[in-house]
Design a protein that fits this description.
Number of helices: 8
Order of helices and strands: EHEHEHEHEHEHHHE
Distance between the termini: 28 Å
Radius of gyration: 18 Å
Helix content: 40-55%
């Protein structure tokens, strides 16, 4: 399927690896030019070159912390007119809420709620003016089915969903959509770090927990970043103009509900 977005410009955050890289690669495969961000310059440059060689699109790599005003300003300057925004930032660490300070909560909100909102604010009017815009927020399946040790993430990301629910309906008439992608267990560094955290508490090996978790999933496996990227690219396509304000759960069927 031709997604109809060849030649568009996408800003993809936290794209040096994991789900962000999957989204950037899928968009580039359909001819979208990219500005990708991440804090680690070396890994980011390597990903940029990999995508350039594979797809031939323009890829600008802007190293920096997207959760800071300076990091956002650099990325937005490099991108210019943004047609597609993929919001993404690493989640806060797991732990016991009794040990979290106010500073811990503020950092979680800055990264996983306020930064996406600031980026949306920066690009939304241009999208409205050009009568095309696609915003995809990578959040977490924990928004729908909370994970106790990820309370910082549960709270901050749910706040973003509430904001998007209202704004998405206001801009839909201009062919601008805002949707959320909620990953469940995907084979990423983040998932492996969570296994390491829980294994340490339980006195088990991370590999043992990973095998058990995969077996518990209806698919008997973890998701891949390519699968995730393909879903992101579709939501960014011309074919998804009637899909907005939605939260697409991608968890292999792990959530046991009807709705």
């Amino acid at each position: 399927m031709d997604l109809g977005i060849r030649g568009k410009t996408a800003l993809v955050c936290a794209a040096s690896k994991g789900l962000g890289k999957g989204c950037a690669t899928a968009l580039a495969s359909d001819g979208v030019n990219l500005v990708i961000t991440a804090r680690g310059k070396e890994a980011l440059e390597a990903t940029a070159e990999e995508i350039r060689k594979a797809t031939g699109v323009k890829v600008a790599a802007v190293a920096g912390d997207i959760t800071t005003p300076e990091g956002r300003a650099s990325a937005l300057k490099a991108a210019g007119a943004v047609d597609i925004l993929v919001n993404n930032a690493g989640g806060p660490p797991p732990g016991d809420f009794r040990n979290w300070s106010r500073e811990d909560w503020v950092k979680a909100l800055e990264a996983n709620m306020l930064t996406p909102i600031e980026l949306i604010k920066a690009v939304i009017d241009g999208m409205i003016e050009r009568k095309f815009g696609r915003i995809v927020n990578i959040t977490s399946g924990a928004v729908k089915m909370p994970i106790p040790e990820l309370g910082l993430s549960n709270g901050a990301r749910t706040g973003l969903h509430g904001f998007v629910a209202g704004l998405s309906r206001q801009v839909a008439q201009h062919n601008v959509t805002i949707n959320n992608l909620l990953p469940g267990p995907f084979d990423t560094d983040r998932l492996r770090s969570n296994f390491a955290f829980n294994a340490n508490k339980l006195g088990k090996k991370p590999e043992e927990l990973a095998r058990t978790r995969a077996e518990q999933n209806p698919t008997k496996r973890f998701g891949t970043i390519d699968e995730f990227g393909a879903a992101c690219a579709f939501l960014a396509s011309v074919h998804a103009g009637y899909i907005t304000g939605q939260s697409l759960l991608m968890d292999g069927g792990a959530y046991p509900g009807t709705f």
